[in-house]
Amino acid sequence: MSSTQNRDGGTQSTSVFKAELLAKSGLFQDMHKGMTVSAAVLILAFVLFTGTNTELAGSIFGAARGWIESTFGWYYLVTVVLLIAVCFYIVVSPHGSVRLGDDDSRPEFSNFAWFSMLFSAGIGIGILFFGVAEPIFYLDNSGAFGYPNNPYADMAGAAAIGHDRAVDALRVTYFHWGFHGWAVYVIVGMSLAYFAYRKKLPLALRSCLYPFIGDRIYGPIGHVVDILGVMGCVFGVATSLGLGVSQMAVGLERLISVDSGTNTQLVLIAIISVLSIMSALSGVGRGIKIISEWNIVVSVLVIAFFLFGGPTAWLLSVFAESLGDYLANFVQMGLWFPEEEGPAAWQNGWTVFYWGWWLAWAPFVGLFIARISRGRTLREFVIGVLFVPTLVIFVWLGIFGGTALFQELNAAGGAGSAGLIDLVKAWNLPAALFASSDGIAGDGTLGWIISAMMVFLLLSWFITSSDSSTLVLTTILSLGNEEPPKIFRIFWGIVIGLVAAVLLVAGGLSALQTANIAAALPLSVIILLMTAGVLKSLIQERRAKDQPTAAESEAV
After folding, report:
1. What is the mean predicted confidence (pLDDT) over 238-244?
2. I want to staple 107 with a disulfide (CB 3.0 to 4.6 A). Which of 327, 345, 368, 375 is the partner?
3. Is 276 in a helix, a strand, or coil?
C-alpha cells in the first residue's frame, strides 16, 4: 500500500500502516509484536553473554571500541561539528519559523516544565557523577593514566597546578558537556518531532528515513532502525543506573552508615525501578513533569549552598574567565586533531569517548525531547535545547568543579594536596563529590543535610531518566503511540532494572558501557541520515509554499 503525500511532503496514511503492523488483540495489543519480541530476545542474549563471559565480553567490546576510536575518531569529531553547524543554520534560516506541528499548534508544556524535563532527562545524573571528578582530573598533571591529563593546558603553558590550569580544566569540562553534545540531541529531537508532528508520521526513529525510502520505513529497514534505538535505550540507561547507584550507595553510607557494597546497590536498583515504573505509568504530564521540576528546585538549593558557602567571589571570577575562554575556543577545540601519541590517546579516551556517549544516547533522549516539544517553532526548539540546558550545566560545573579546584589550589599542604586528586587517581569518582562538599560544610549536621540533598538528586534524576526511557522505548515499539500500553511500560521498566542488576553482580557493567560507545558508530550514520532527511524535507516544504497553487495560477 502506498501513502498519499500532502503538498508539503507529508503522508496521509500513517494510521493505515500502523493498524496493519500493530497487534489488534491479545497480550501484544497496540504493540508491534515482532519488534517487541526481537528486542527482548536480543537484549536477553546480550546480557547472558556479557554476564557469563565477563572477561571475554570486555575484551571483545574493548577491542571494538579501541579500533573505532583509533580509526573513526576523526569521523566522530567532524560529525559532531557538522551537527552544530546545522543547528546554527536552522536558527538563522527561514526554516526556523516552521512549527513542530500544524501552523496553529502551540506548546503543550510551560517553558519551566519544558526546561526542567530537558535538563533532567538529558544529563542530570552525569554532571553529579563527573561534576567534581572531571575538572580535578584535568587539574592533575601527573599523567598517571599513561597520557597527559590536560593537553590543552599543557599547550597553553599551564603545566603546573595553579590558577591558569584550573581555568583550562573548567574549559575542557565545558567542552565535553556543552554545545557539541547537545547539538546531537537537538538534531535527533528536532528530526523526530518534525516528522511526527508536522508530517504525521510515527514518533519513531524510522520516520526520519521517510524522505529517502518513503513507505518502506514500515518494512524491515524501519524495524531494524527502531530495534537499534530500543537496545541503545535499554543498555544506556542500565549502564547509567549501575554506575549511578554506586554513588548513591556512597552517599547513603555517609548518611546512615549502611554498607555501600553490592547488596545496597541492588536494593537501590529495585527501589529506583519501582519508582520509575510508577512515574512512567502516570505519563509525561504528571510523574515525569513533577519529579523534573523538583529536581530543579533542589538543584538550585544545592548550587546556592556551594556558591555562597564556598569562595563566592573566586567562583564567580573563575566561572566568567573559563566560560569566556570556552566560548572563544570551542570551535577550534572541536576541530583539533593531535598528531602526538600522548595527546591523541587523551583525545580518544575523553573527547571521542564523550562524543560516542552523546551519539549512543541520542535516540533515547532525542525522542523524549521530541515528545515534550510539540507546537514549538524550530528556532525556539534549537535555541531552547542547545542553550538553556547547556548554560545550566556550565553554571553547575563552574560552581561544583570550581569549588573542588579552589580546595586543591588552596590546600593547607600546598597546591594539589587536598585529597580530591588522590580520589580521582584511584578512580573513586563517587566519593569525590561528597569529599568536596565536606570541604565546605564539614561532617556535622549541615554536611549531612547537603549530602542528603545530593543523594536525593541522584535518585530523582535517575528516576526521570529511567521513566523517560521506559516511555520512549514503548513509544517506539508501538509505532509512535504517545500513551503506549501500561503493561509494556511495566515490562521494560523491569527489564532495565534487571539488566543493570545482573551485570552489576556479574561485573559486566564496564563491558556494557564500552559496547554502548561502540554502538555509536552505526547510530551516527542514522543520525546523519536524519539530518539530511529533515533538511531535504524542509527545503521541499519551503519550495512548495513558494510555488503558486493551480487556483492561484489561474487567477493570475
Report:
1. 76
2. 375
3. helix
